[in-house]
C-alpha cells in the first residue's frame, strides 16, 4: 500500500510538472521546437501510465491526511517564468527517478520505460537552458565600429549605452590587431557584467570565444552558419546578415537566432553596402518567425518606418557615435 502511495504522488507530480512546462512553452516561450519536444515527452509518459494499474494506485491514495498537504510543504519561491520551468524540470526528474526505483520491485520492464522518459527530460532540460541563454531583446542594437573606438573611453561609452535602453551591443573590427581586438572585447564584456545586455562579436568566432561574448554575427561570405554553430555550441546567439528573402529563409532553416536585414538606407559606415530597402524588409518580416533587425542608415528620422515594416529592432552605428551619444539614443527610444 505504501509503495503504491509513493507511486501515486510521484506520477501526479510528474504529470503536473510536464503539463505546466508544456503550457509555458506554448503560451509564453512560443517556441515550436521546444513545444514539440515537451509534447513528445508527455505523450510517452501518458502511454506509460496506461500500462500501470492506475485504479489500484489511485485507490491507495490518502490525500486527506497526507503530510505534504499543507500549502508551505515543499514550496519554493520562483522569481520568474524561467525559474518556474527549471524548478518543474527538477521535480519531473526527481519523480521519474523515484517511479523508476519503485517499479524495479514490481515490473523491471516498466522501470526501464521510466528511465527512458527521465533521459528525455534531461535532454529537454539542456535544450531549454540553451534557449534561455540565447534569449535577447533586439530593440536597440548598437554597433561599435572600430573607427569609434577609444580604449580609455570604452567603459564610459558602454555605460551610456546600457543606461539609455540599449539592449544589444556588437563590436565590429576589421583592421586592428587580434590582440587589440581582444583587449576591447574584454573591456566591453567586463563593463557589461551583471547587465541584461547581450554582447555580440562581428564575424570573429575566436574572439567571441576568448572574451566569452554572448554571440556572433556572421555575413553571407563568413564562416557558414552550420559550422559556426558546431564550433560555438548551442548557448551562443548567432545572427546572420541577409539581403533578400532567399537568404533569410535559408538562415532561419539553418538555425539562426536573428537576422540582420539591410542595408535599409545608404550608410556612412558601409558606403559600399547594397540597398535592399523597406520592401525587402517587409517581405522578410512576414516570412520568418525569428527576430529581424533592420540595419543600415537608420536614424531618428526613419527608424519608425523600419519598425512599422515589421522589424523587431534597429541596428545603429554612425548615427549614435557621430554626435552626443546619450541624446541620440534618446532620439531613437522616444515614444
UniProtKB/TrEMBL annotation:
Residues 5-127 form the ThiD2 domain. 4-amino-2-methyl-5-(diphosphooxymethyl)pyrimidine binds at residues 202, 241, 270. Binds 1 Mg(2+) ion per subunit. Its cofactor is Mg(2+). GO terms for cellular component: cytoplasm. 2-[(2R,5Z)-2-carboxy-4-methylthiazol-5(2H)-ylidene]ethyl phosphate binds at residues 267-269, 297. Residues 140-318 form the Thiamine phosphate synthase/TenI domain. Keywords: Magnesium, Metal-binding, Thiamine biosynthesis, Transferase. Mg(2+) binds at residue 222. Pfam families: ThiD2 (PF17792), TMP-TENI (PF02581). One of its GO terms (molecular function) is thiamine-phosphate diphosphorylase activity. InterPro entries: Aldolase_TIM, ThiamineP_synth_sf, ThiamineP_synth_TenI, ThiD2, TMP_synthase. Pathway: Cofactor biosynthesis; thiamine diphosphate biosynthesis; thiamine phosphate from 4-amino-2-methyl-5-diphosphomethylpyrimidine and 4-methyl-5-(2-phosphoethyl)-thiazole: step 1/1. Its EC number is 2.5.1.3. Belongs to the thiamine-phosphate synthase family. NCBIfam families: thiE. This is Thiamine-phosphate synthase. It comes from candidate division WOR_3 bacterium SM23_42.
Amino acid at each position: 500500500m505504501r509503495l503504491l502511495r509513493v507511486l501515486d504522488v510521484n506520477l501526479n507530480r510528474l504529470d503536473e510538472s510536464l503539463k505546466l512546462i508544456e503550457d509555458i512553452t506554448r503560451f509564453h516561450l512560443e517556441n515550436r521546437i521546444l513545444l514539440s519536444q515537451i509534447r513528445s515527452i508527455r505523450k510517452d509518459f501518458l502511454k506509460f501510465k496506461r500500462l500501470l494499474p492506475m485504479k489500484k494506485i489511485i485507490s491507495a491514495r490518502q490525500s486527506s491526511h497526507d503530510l505534504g498537504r499543507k500549502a508551505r510543504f515543499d514550496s519554493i519561491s520562483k522569481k520568474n517564468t524561467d525559474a518556474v520551468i527549471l524548478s518543474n524540470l527538477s521535480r519531473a526528474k526527481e519523480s521519474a527517478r523515484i517511479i523508476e526505483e519503485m517499479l524495479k520491485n514490481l515490473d523491471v520492464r516498466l522501470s526501464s520505460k521510466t528511465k527512458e522518459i527521465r533521459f528525455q527530460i534531461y535532454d529537454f532540460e539542456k535544450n531549454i537552458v540553451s534557449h534561455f541563454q540565447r534569449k535577447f531583446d533586439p530593440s536597440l542594437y548598437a554597433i561599435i565600429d572600430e573607427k569609434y573606438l577609444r580604449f580609455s573611453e570604452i567603459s564610459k561609452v558602454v555605460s551610456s549605452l546600457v543606461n539609455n535602453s540599449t539592449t544589444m551591443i556588437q563590436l565590429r573590427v576589421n583592421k586592428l590587431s587580434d590582440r587589440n581586438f581582444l583587449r576591447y572585447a574584454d573591456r566591453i564584456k567586463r563593463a557589461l557584467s551583471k547587465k541584461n545586455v547581450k554582447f555580440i562579436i562581428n564575424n570573429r568566432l575566436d574572439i567571441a570565444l576568448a572574451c566569452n561574448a554572448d554571440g556572433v554575427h556572421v555575413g553571407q561570405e563568413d564562416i557558414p552558419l552550420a559550422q559556426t554553430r558546431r564550433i560555438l555550441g548551442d548557448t551562443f546567439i548567432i545572427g546572420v546578415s541577409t539581403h533578400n528573402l532567399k537568404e533569410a529563409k535559408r538562415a532561419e532553416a539553418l538555425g539562426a537566432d536573428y537576422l540582420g536585414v539591410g542595408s535599409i538606407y545608404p550608410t556612412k559606415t558601409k558606403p559600399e553596402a547594397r540597398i535592399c530597402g523597406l520592401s525587402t524588409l517587409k517581405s522578410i518580416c512576414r516570412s520568418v518567425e525569428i527576430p529581424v533587425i533592420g540595419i543600415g542608415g537608420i536614424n531618428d528620422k526613419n527608424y519608425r518606418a523600419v519598425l512599422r515594416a515589421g522589424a523587431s529592432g534597429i541596428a545603429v552605428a554612425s548615427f549614435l557615435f557621430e554626435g552626443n551619444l546619450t541624446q541620440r539614443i534618446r532620439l531613437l527610444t522616444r515614444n
